[in-house]
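A quick word before the example. In earlier lectures we treated sequence and structure as two separate objects. From today on, think of them as two lines of the same record. Here is (4Fe-4S)-binding protein written that way.
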Amino acid sequence: MSGTFLGMPAFPEAARSAVADPVLRANLRHATHTIRARRARAVAELADWEALRQAGKEIKDHTLRHLDTHLLRLEEAVTSAGGVVHWAEDAEEANRIVTELVRATGEREVVKVKSMATQEIGLNEALEAAGIAAYETDLAELIVQLGEDRPSHILVPAIHRNRGEIRRIFRDRMGAWGRPAPDGLTDEPARLAEAARLHLREKFLRAKVGVSGANFMVAETGTLVVVESEGNGRMCLTLPETLISVVGVEKVVPTWRDLEVFLQTLPRSSTAERMSPYTSMWTGTSDGDGPRAFHLVLLDNGRTSALADATGRQALRCIRCSACLNVCPVYERAGGHAYGSVYPGPIGAILTPQLRGTVSELDASLPYASSLCGACYEVCPVAIDIPEVLVSLRERVAARGGSGHRVERAAMAAATWLFDHPGALAAGERLASATRRLHPSRPPGAGAWTAGRELPELPERSFRDWWRRERGKGS
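And the structure line, produced from the sequence above:
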């Protein structure tokens, strides 16, 4: 998997720096609390929310079990509708395909509707290396691009920025990318949005090539679906002569009827809306309407490897709503950059290591970037049991010897031996009880664990001895 934030340290180190930034924490706290409160009200309006949630889970699980069948059906439908399907095993192949398709048009710039898959593979950088400029058109993505920043949230990539910071970015950087910001620009949301519209309008009208992702692909008809709130997606999908969509293979759903479930759960879980303002759907090409050429790049990039894990594959149910980020106490304090991936928060902690194979120190640290409180599972509209997957990934990392301080690893090895030898365990319990008054509340060598905790006080005798004594009384 590409899209790694090169040079990023492991999560604990990156998070420590983020937590020390009071402006960042204030921005995150305000935004996440606002979004999750609105989401809770929107979800409460539906008496059958739990039934929809279960339906979404079952549709996704069924689709993943028969993914090969549905993808081939999708390819046939897209081709019949006038589109061209390309298969990309990894990021390098996907970037090569898209770059060659753009070059074939003779164009040197593209407009993009927000796509996490293209961020995942580092498409913008690949296009830039080929002399092709890629312009982000989502407002938050525009802020990130102009600020030479990185996204920190699935739904609101610039969630870590406040209005004053956005005003400075627009004022200082817009001119280098196209139309400059208006004179006297203030930090009022309406004025900032108007500046973005004016800046992007010339790009929409000039661009001959559009690049998109998709929230869903309907195998039954070959239809792709993008759900968004600003209208930039509609512009990218209809004005260019050539449209290239890069989509993860897990985004397919079998039928239109299946799509009905997700068009109810996604808007409420993401933007707290009953229905997204713009739901764009397209099927191949049509004379006189929309792009004259349509290319669909189906991206694997580690997804089939994740599919092979019976527990971990549920991460592929994700519909990218970001509800888990907005309730996560770890994300709220650390922000998205600490996760070192375009997929931050709880879902990123289980998706990124699987796509990348948990081979780096950063990836190995992500399954531990959680308190296992379970709030993420409670709000997930497709019932991904994120804590269960986190624990499974921790087991995988531990089995490789890739986590934990040496003292922790030694303690775990000692505990393993002790639990395998009941006699030694019983003797140890009696010794620990007899010497309990001598035990320090914070033992040396475990400061990272005990900084916010104290060891529980041991009882006078172990349960084992108590049970033996009480059972003896009744006999």
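Notice the following. The mean pLDDT is 91. We will return to this example when we discuss secondary structure assignment.
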